[in-house]
């Protein structure tokens, strides 16, 4: 079964440029919003070294966005993703390790680094 975000008309197709890898702190994160008419897709990317992962910006506990401030997805140490609504902590690979959604996972948003650019995959 496909996740509901897969049918979202605002979800960008493969190949859309998000940013240059050099524009993303290490570790760092950046959020993106795409709108098509009344539909909106929210996602974010997280950089750890040369690895960049993408996630749908929705907490598995309550489906709220993880960050209430632009690009503030990581703890101060940069080693965990944090949900601003209730403090759930996720490893950078998307597994929840603390909070009401422990053992749940963030929904992946496929991204890739191509020629120094982060793009949707």
From TrEMBL:
SUPFAM superfamilies (UniProt xref): ISP domain
Iron found in the keyword field: yes
Rieske domain sequence ranges: 16-120
Matching PROSITE patterns: RIESKE
Keyword entries, A-Z: 2Fe-2S, Iron, Iron-sulfur, Metal-binding
Domain of life: Bacteria
CDD domains documented for this protein: Rieske
InterPro entries: Rieske_2Fe-2S (IPR017941), Rieske_2Fe-2S_sf (IPR036922)
Name of this protein: Rieske (2Fe-2S) protein
Lineage, uppermost ranks: Bacteria, Pseudomonadati, Pseudomonadota, Alphaproteobacteria, Caulobacterales
Alphabetical list of Pfam families matching this protein: Rieske
Species of provenance: Phenylobacterium conjunctum
